Amino acid sequence: MPKVQVMSDGTLFQYEATEGSNFLLEAISESIPIPFKCTKGNCAKCYVKITSGSDHLSEPTEREYHHIGDEGLTEGNRLACQCFVYGDVEAVIEPR
């Protein structure tokens, strides 16, 4: 099972995700405080920066291109609700 680490406000959260699971929904089920409103990529509140393992996530969606842009995606920024986990990933929740 993929291991996911999320740094939020100085606290490191770790959990094992089911392969192919949604990053945001798994994090919420593990009580990780990722801000969100819609879970569909419309609000862009679930913004995370992937620091390791970006190649273990699904490809960026059109909604991510719309909210984050090419440059932001290249820098590792993603919407947690649009990511599906296929391997080990490390992320940081950064306020926007």
What does this structure look like?
- The protein has helices spanning 23-29, 62-74, and strands at 3-8, 11-16, 21-22, 47-52, 77-79, 84-85, 89-93.
- With 96 residues, it is of the alpha+beta class.
- The longest helix has 13 residues, at 62-74.
- The chain has 2 helices and 7 strands; from the N terminus they run E-E-E-H-E-H-E-E-E.
- The strands form 2 sheets. A 5-stranded mixed beta sheet has the order 2-1-7-4-5. The chain has a two-stranded antiparallel ribbon with strand order 3-6.
Decide which structural class fits the backbone: alpha+beta
Radius of gyration (CA) equals 12 Å
Strand order of the largest sheet: 2-1-7-4-5
Shape: globular
The tally of strands reads 7
Number of helices: 2
At a glance:
21% of the residues lie in helices and 31% in strands.
